[in-house]
Design goal:
The complex is a heterodimer of chains A (about 240) and B (about 240). With about 240 residues, chain A is mostly helical. Helix content of chain A is about 85%, strand content about 0%. Chain A has one domain. Chain B has one domain. In chain B, about 80% of the residues lie in helices and about 0% in strands. Chain B contains eight helices and no strands. Classes of the chains: A mainly alpha (about 240), B mainly alpha (about 240).
Chain lengths: ~240, ~240
């Protein structure tokens, strides 16, 4: 009897794909997040308070109209990036704190864990973007003349934020002094993406441009490279 | 010993030749073009060091040899030093020719990002107490950071036009005059040799330190007074 049971279990493990495992981890994280809402609250409250501070200090008319596309893009991306950095490390740090990390190591393959956590972080970033970007546009009277490009830029930029920070979150979960270290390690990797996104949003606000969407292409390339490298390197970080 | 003396003489000859043998280039105010013989080799060594650190990190992850990690760490430390030197000399040149110490020229931006990457690398190393984990995570971070460098090369120059001499001064005369070229190549060689020498010293220091730690543990673990007495002799023998 025990033999058949173990055989059954092996076949089931073999039939489970990376994607299944990743989605299972994603759902599990979402469920635990809905129970505590720690990461979501941290990120959203950080973003909202920063946005209020920016809006209060600058308002919608203080900046000259010709300067707005660039300066607003800078402010928006600073808010988005630093809010993301305030909460995204939770995905791995909470495993370390709750002591569930060893069970997770046993129950899923490293790449699947990475993908699951990436999906979870992207969900958080999605929530952040949906709340913050429209509020920012309303509060600051941000005029965008090419909304499709702007939306695509925000989406690819958020994908890039998730792709760049997930493996760093896994790394700092093993280190002490986590909060500060996460921003310190992530920012140098995110700076090229930030510069690209700011430029893209500025161009989108100005209006249609025959140059095409080079910023979106760069951001997509960044996402692909970061995810590929993370998939290669994650098992080293995870199994250490 | 001979190498050290030769290198000192070579370096001295280059410094004298940089000021007396070559002519100041046309198009630069006063004697400022002589920065070429110092600033460019410094930034070359900083970049080379970054590459060495990344390659040693890959070797460490593949083979788990302690020595590879020592190379990676030493290269990062020296790279940081040369990076600061290049930044400072470049900044002085910027003041003399462009009128301000810092104006976020693309070259200045990318060197600042390089500095933050090095800084983050050291912050990571100092934050992890377990030495093995520290080595693996530092190696992973080094590789991840290296992957983002191409973005700096392609992305940042897109944002603004550069004032860096290679873009503004040289299109008319692609070839350097032969005397300048000789001294420049000589200086490049001198700086690279100096770098390799310093790198070897630093690696030897790290190796000796790790030996010392190992001997210490041995002495404690054995609990035998005889082994403790033997230690100074052993250490002295290896240090020579």
């Amino acid at each position: 009897m025990p033999q058949t049971k173990s055989v059954k279990r092996t076949t089931r493990t073999e039939s489970s794909t990376y994607l299944n495992e990743a989605i299972a981890i994603w759902f599990r994280d979402m469920r635990s997040e809905f129970r505590t809402r720690y990461a979501l609250n941290a990120i959203l409250m950080f973003a909202v308070t920063t946005l209020i501070a920016v809006s209060f200090a600058i308002g919608s008319f203080r900046i000259d109209e010709s300067e707005r596309p660039f300066l607003y893009a800078v402010l928006l991306w600073i808010i988005l990036t630093f809010s993301a950095l305030s909460g995204l490390s939770r995905s791995f740090v909470k495993e370390e704190e709750a002591g569930t990390i060893d069970v997770l190591k046993l129950s899923a393959r490293p790449q699947a864990v990475f993908l699951g956590k990436l999906l979870f972080n992207l969900s958080l970033l999605g929530a952040l973007g949906v709340v913050i970007v429209p509020t920012f546009i309303l509060l600051m009277a941000y005029q965008i003349n090419f909304p499709v490009f702007f939306t695509t830029m925000i989406i690819t930029g958020c994908l890039g934020l998730g792709a760049g920070t997930t493996i760093i979150a896994a790394m700092i979960a093993r280190a002490s002094g986590r909060g500060a270290l996460f921003s310190v390690l992530s920012l140098p990797l995110l700076l090229p993406l930030m510069i690209t996104c700011i430029k893209g949003c500025e161009r989108a606000a100005i209006g249609y441009d025959s140059a095409g969407w080079p910023e979106v292409k760069i951001a997509v390339a960044y996402v692909i490279i970061m995810i590929t490298m993370s998939l290669f390197l994650f098992s080293l970080v995870w199994e250490e | 010993m001979v190498q050290k003396i030769l290198l000192t003489i070579w370096m001295a000859v280059i410094i004298v030749a940089a000021f007396l043998y070559t002519e100041a280039a046309v198009g630069f105010p006063g004697q400022t073009s002589r920065i070429l013989f110092f600033h460019v080799p410094q930034s070359w060594v900083a970049t080379l060091s970054f590459l060495v650190s990344m390659a040693a990190s890959v070797v460490y992850l593949a083979k788990r040899k302690l020595k590879a990690d020592h190379v990676a760490q030493s290269a990062a430390e020296l790279g940081f030093l040369f990076c600061i030197l290049a930044t400072v000399t470049g900044s002085i040149f910027a003041k003399a020719t462009w009128g301000s110490f810092w104006n976020w020229d693309p070259r200045e931006t990318s060197i600042v990002i390089l500095l933050t990457i090095y800084g983050a690398y050291f912050a990571l190393r100092s934050a992890i107490s377990d030495p093995d984990r520290c080595r693996v995570l530092a190696a992973v971070y080094s590789i991840l950071a290296f992957v983002t460098v191409p973005f700096l090369v392609f992305v940042v120059p897109r944002i603004t036009a550069s004032l860096h001499p290679e873009n503004t001064m040289n299109p008319a005369n692609p070839g350097m005059d032969p005397r300048t070229l000789t001294v420049f190549l000589g200086s490049l060689f001198a700086y690279t040799a100096l770098y390799l020498w310093m790198l070897r010293l630093r690696i030897r220091i790290l190796n000796l330190e790790s030996l010392k730690v190992r001997d210490l543990f041995r002495g404690r673990g054995g609990g035998n007074p005889k082994t403790e007495n033997e230690q100074p002799r052993m250490k002295g023998g290896r240090a020579q």
